[in-house]
Specification:
It contains four helices and five strands, in the order E-E-H-E-E-E-H-H-H. The protein is α+β, with helices and mostly antiparallel strands. The strands form two sheets. The protein has a three-stranded antiparallel β-sheet, with no helix packed on it.
Amino acid sequence: MKSMVWVRPDGAVSVSYLSETLRARETETQFYNRIAKKMKDDGAIPLTWFRAAEIEPSLLPSDRKFRDAWKWTGNAIEVDLPKAKTLCLSRLIQDVNKKFSSFDLLRTPTADLEAQKQALLNQELAFTAKINEAKTVQELKDVVWTL
């Protein structure tokens, strides 16, 4: 059974996995049309999304790390590298903010606190550079940070 590919207004992709047990006595095309209409009517899929294709599940990317950066190219789903970089930078900022919020502002001497903040900033800058320098999805996957 094929999976239904939906393209959202921002260009990202969502995939609906369908079960053969949902299929009545209808052709495959009728089945997909009925399910698409029902999903939109039920509000499961926003009206602003459009159905791009039905594809074999084997054609879906096996690595879901950058699932939020998937895009439809007209015949396949690929990772949008600039969007994946933006997602990585956003996650890095969240991690930096979380680490910064763990600093003990009341008990740590000001000089030590400034040194910790500077070290964290230096790490953030180094990882930001690595993310921005990535030329492929694999290079981006290889950028792993620990703060």
